[in-house]
Amino acid sequence: MAECQDFAQFGLAPNLLSAITRMGYTQPTAIQCTAIPVVLQGRDVMGAAQTGTGKTASFGLPVLQKLLPLANTSTSPARHPVR
């Protein structure tokens, strides 16, 4: 599996990196190092890893990254493509 040093190397948005840090995560797990770059490229991923290794974040972080350009702070329901 790929080895990596920190979440910043994936090119995630600063607010996502800040949230990751606030949650106490410092270094990606092996499954995250392998899957996050692939998901960010829009490719399909199938992986298996032990419970507690961060599989959900392996696809959740890239999905959040992809949704960020659609975020909107407007209070109008018509201007909320993503909530």
Brief characterization of the structure:
Helix content is 40%, strand content 0%.
Molecular structure report:
The chain is mainly alpha-helical. It contains three helices and no strands. Helix 2 (30-40) runs parallel beside helix 3. The model has no long low-confidence stretch (mean pLDDT 89).
Report how far the terminal alpha carbons are from each other. Answer: 34 Å
Tell me the number of helical segments per DSSP (H or I, 4 or more residues long).
Answer: 3
Q: Assess the beta-strand content as a share of residues.
A: under 5%
Alpha carbon gyration radius: 14 Å
Q: Helices and strands: which structural class?
A: mainly alpha
Quote the average pLDDT: 89
Shape: globular
Main beta sheet strand tally, sense and closure: none
Helix content: 25-40%
Low-pLDDT residue spans: none
The tally of strands reads 0
Question: Keywords for this structure?
Answer:
40% helix, 0% strand, 3 helices, mainly alpha, globular, 83 residues
Please give the structural blueprint.
Layout: H1 14-22, H2 30-40, H3 55-67
